[in-house]
Design brief:
By secondary structure, the protein is of the alpha+beta class. The protein contains 2 helices and 3 strands.
């Protein structure tokens, strides 16, 4: 399978009704989306760096969540 990671866009609503854009990471292959972590960050640059790490290291889907969590905890 040709697994690729990509940025997803979502919104969170604050208690006062404001919408804040958030960025997540999806994982997909030839058969569509296989997994997604929503609301990883409000910084698209950071999320893009994590996507680059996932793709350049060809991270297997079973390690997807762990790698993202490791990067968030740096």
């Amino acid at each position: 399978m040709n697994l690729k990671y990509y940025i997803t866009e979502n919104e969170l609503e604050t208690e006062d009704g404001r919408l804040i854009p958030t960025y997540g990471i999806g994982a997909g292959g030839d058969c569509g989306t296989l997994a997604e972590l929503r609301d990883v960050s409000v910084d698209p640059g950071f999320t893009g760096k994590v996507v680059d790490i996932l793709n350049s290291n060809e991270v297997e889907l079973c390690h997807f969540r762990d790698v993202v969590l490791d990067e968030l905890n740096r």
